[in-house]
Description:
Radius of gyration: 20 Å
Amino acid sequence: xxxxxxxxxxxxxxxxxxxxxxxxxxxxxxxxxxxxxxxxxxxxxxxxxxxxxxxxxxxxxxxxxxxxxxxxxxxxxxxxxxxxxxxxxxxxxxxxxxxxxxxxxxxxxxxxxxxxxxxxxxxxxxxxxxxxxxxxxxxxxxxxxxxxxxxxxxxxxxxxxxxxxxxxxxxxxxxxxxxxxxxxxxxxxxxxxxxxxxxxxxxxxxxxxxxxxxxxxxxxxxxxxxxxxxxxxxxxxxxxxxxxxxxxxxxxxxxxxxxxxxxxxxxxxxxxxxxxxxxxxxxxxxxxxxxxxxxxxxxxxxxxxxxxxxxx
Length: 312
């Protein structure tokens, strides 16, 4: 067995291995999804390694490149995402070997840390390999009692309506107190407009605010899930009032049962009318692993949004 860097010509085999190892689940595996995630990412092409047995791929480990901004400092990061081991070779330590070799290559590059949001089944394995549990993101919920047919539009409004505002937000990122995703040019279009997983919608006046969300069906009913909220220096009380009115209209027209907003953005939560239910620590669990930094990454002042952490 040879462990090597993945090549573009491996992509068809990689997709088949993902399907064989993980099944389709709610997120179908495809070359289009792989290219969007690992090649078109504005933070750079993903580091990917494979286990190759006589030309047949039996293992895969991929991290997604990411960058965080803290004042003038850029943190180089990766998110642990796709992994697959052929069913005939599971339980032989290949996953651990691939992960450790990929981490070592990132160390040589000077990557500071790895982050991810593992599920309950995979969390113990990550902790054994040096990951640390940061905890659960804060979650704000607002329940509604609308009844009627869902009249929410199927397709988002044209991206051209917010293109200039997106360029302004990315070019003039307002430094926050803490570490936030670096809004490199093209990030928001990649993350929301080009995402092949499901449609993301936006609320905006084209000038002072931009809120991204998606509609999700679940056991509790239809959810309006807010993933990111951005505002400019011209955002005012009048703007906030208009935004909240738009939000309520979409909650009602979409027959939404509840709205959720998860992340470390308390100021943004205050600007939105999300009811009186207290914030709870029930959002996604976040884990971190040092790579080349010696800093205490757990106790840094993180400022994640749900858009940084969901899906992928």
